[in-house]
Amino acid sequence: MNDRRYDSILTGAAVAGILLFMVFLATLVLQSIPAIQANGLGFVTGKEWNPVTVKFGALPFIAGTLLTSLLALALSLPFSLAIGIVLGEYASESKISTVANTIVNLLATIPSVVYGLWGLAVVVPLVRNIELALGVPPYGVGIASASLVLAIMIIPYLSSITREVLLNVPSSVKQGALALGSTRSEMITGIALPYVRSGILAGVLLSLGRALGETMAVTMLIGNATRMPTSIFSIGNTLASIIASQFNEAESDVHRSGMIGLALILFMITFIMNYLGRRVIQRTGVHHGI
Asked: Would you list the DSSP string of 239-270?
């Protein structure tokens, strides 16, 4: 009897979750129809964003979102894996691990506006000096600055997951590899990491989702220009940053509809990324880790 009641509760929760998802998606679709009708396919492929002429093209913001997020993920990946491996394997039982893990977790709790202010004070001058050395316009703000700060923001997520999944590798598997003559590094790279690669891929997905949706820090650092980025030193906008900076100042209902349309695109990008990531995890054929 209790099992049936428990199953009924789970079924009801699942149905409620699906209905909530459908209502959320339907709201975004319906609210974005005016802007899509006014611009057609150009709403996704267009490069001009001009509320005065009712020209709404989201391509510069899509490019800015993907470029910033993927660059941040690429920058953070080696550091995240290194931190996770050190904390999960080399210092898993020491006091240093406890302190370091606490510090890494604290990085995840820092408000994004604080990261943005820190980026303006530290990262922007550094990037400006690099731009002067390379002979590009020394904006300081732009894709590069936003990506660097975003990379720091997502390091705690992937490093923590890497540490946790490595700690879940059975000690018998590790000891067996060492008993066969493997060194510590060979055991980690040849046994432990392949054993938990699905968990690490899940951490990459979580980090990418965090990067795609970040708003405040990116808004403060990316330059807020409605133009197509041509390099990592270009100023631009992401889908999240343009919504944050313009939604409350929308000049018309169509302009506001365009903002909601951008939210719909961001939602779809996140959904597609997660779907593709899940497919990659399934294709690995590994069921360990997370």
From this structure: HHHHHHHHGGG--SHHHHHHHHHHHHHHHHHH
116-146 tens-digit pLDDT: 999 999 999 999 999 999 988 889 999 999 9
In a domain, 17, yes or no: no
- Is residue 85 assigned to a domain? yes
The count of residues in the chain is 290
Inside any domain, residue 20: no
Domain containing residue 87:
60-284
- Entry pTM: 0.85
Measured torsion, CA atoms of residues 283, 288, 289, 290, in degrees rounded to the nearest 10: 70
For residue 68, which amino acid is it? T
Tokens coding 272: 């597609």
The total number of structural domains in the chain stands at 1
Maximum Cα interatomic distance, the chain, rounded to a whole number of Å = 74
Ordered DSSP codes for 96-125? HHHHHHHHHHHHHHS-HHHHHHHIIIIIHH
Q: What CATH number is attached to the domain comprising 233? A: 1.10.3720.10
Q: Which amino acid is at 24?
A: F
- How far apart CA 261 and CA 56 sit, in angstroms, is 10
